[in-house]
Amino acid sequence: MAWWRLELASAPELEESLLWKLTALGIPRVAIQHRPETPRQRTLLAWLPESDWPPAERQHLEQALGALAEPFGLTLPAISWSQQADEDWSLSWKQHWQADPVGERLLILPAWLDCPEEHRQRLVICMDPGSAFGTGSHPTTRLCLEALEGMDLAGLRVADLGCGSGVLGLGALRLGALKVAAADTDYLAVRATGDNAALNGLSDRLEVALGSIEVLEDLLAGQPADLLLCNILAPVIEALCPSFASVLAPSGVGLLSGLLVDQAPNLQQALAAQGWSSELSAQQSQWGLMKIRRVT
After folding, report:
1. Going by DSSP bridges, is the β-strand pair 225-231/157-161 parallel, antiparallel, or unpaired?
2. pLDDT value at position 116?
């Protein structure tokens, strides 16, 4: 089999959207190449069977990916196509991943790599990036992980709504949380979270199930969490916030990301109507992190 290799310079704002779209189109062979010291310089790589992607289909794909940049006021850079002979593509994309330090204490480590000597003192989160549901490199994920570093998580029970790859819940456990209950509406995300928990030897402390906030409430078994993590898009957060009280204890804290900074005012109004105080506590590029508490 021969392959097309797609190569595209990608802004961090578009990473999750591009990975989601490629996966939705049945293109699972993907990778994001970047160096930790230059996090905004990213290259998206994908491998497509040549027989399935003639010129017309590749043109349609370019149009579909280009449309993802419009909501951000961006223009998608030109896509480069090159042909590759039959190869073990899994090894090909694996070579583009590397250890990625986050904040002051965490390290996201692809499962097949050894921990670099210079990062031995960090708390390691082993990940299998092949699932493309959040590898820690997107600004919303990094904002959450960095916020977790600044909190005392010892003994806390955590709820992870829209868990994706499980990276946030695993980060919380590495930083001292006691238990994580996680849920996602995508079966592949649930599987990825379970697999990554096993990679880290944390399956006994992370429980994951398919579904939304009602399923998360069931997992918590009547004991709302001390900390809610919610890294999903702002309209979805707004739709779900009336039910936050069912999964977050009255004295608990919520970290909401996945929102653009200019979406924050409307979201804050929606949260206030449901009895939550909120602040935009951090931002990176166009993305923001919101911290919420119950109004007393």
Report:
1. parallel
2. 94
Query: Could you tell me if 183 and 131 are in contact, meaning their C-beta atoms sit under 8 angstroms apart?
Result: no
Pairing outcome for strands 30-35 and 38-49: antiparallel
Say if pTM beats, i.e. exceeds, 0.90.
no
Whether 147 maps to a domain, the answer reads yes
pLDDT on residue 132: 45
Does residue 154 sit within a domain? Answer: yes
Which pair of tokens denotes residue 80? Answer: 């480069």
* Cα–Cα distance for residue pair 208/210, rounded to 1 Å: 7
Listed in sequence order, the residues at least 6 apart from 120 whose beta carbon sits closer than 8 Å to its beta carbon are none
Residues of the chain under the 50 pLDDT cut:
132
263 belongs to a structural domain: yes
Q: Which CATH number does the domain housing residue 206 bear? A: 3.40.50.150
The count of structural domains within the chain is: 1
- Can you tell me the distance from the alpha carbon of 259 to that of 154, in angstroms, rounded to the nearest whole number? 27
Taking only Cα atoms into account, the Rg of the chain, rounded to an integer number of angstroms, comes to: 19
**Residue 256 placed within a domain:** yes
